[in-house]
Design a protein that fits this description.
Helicase, Ruva Protein, domain 3; 7 helices
Amino acid sequence: MKQYPRPLARLINEISKLPGIGNKSAQRLAFHIIDLEEEEVKKLTEALLSAKKELKYCSVCGDLTEGDPCSICSNSQRRQDVICVVESPKDVMAMERTKAFDGLYHVLHGVIAPLEGVGPEDINLKSLIKRLQENDVNEVIIATNPNIEGEATAMYIGRLLKPSGIKVTKLAHGLPVGGDLEYADEVTLLKSLEGRSSL
């Protein structure tokens, strides 16, 4: 069987490391990139490097941003007394698409997953507690994905915050169990946000 030339094999190997990209998809993408004009490949490379260099995590909420604090945290028009806790920056974008939430966010950068060795200390919880102690927050909305890890994380945060007296709610189950926020449509997210319940 013919082997790929080394540079092509390396490109396929690197692309296949991306989430959701199997070997066949990596091969298709690699051949597509090879067929591009050199200028297009240069633009793609520059966009990748620019995103990696210029994006950082907001020191307040943990969302991806160019400036610090991010545009949401620094927006005085948003409600300062409600924080929506999500798993990743992708989930912030999903929630923002609904145009229904006008509070602040807190990005956990993961969920509690004991089988994978991820505990509460491995996600962005300490800064959430600090934010709640330093600010006048009335409600924390837990918007983790409706799967085992997301539900366990929501329950943990709910128990952790209960003594504080802050109202803790979670999104209603308009979202499919096992689904991800980033793939939910705006109407489903809107209904889930409106139907949130106390933990």
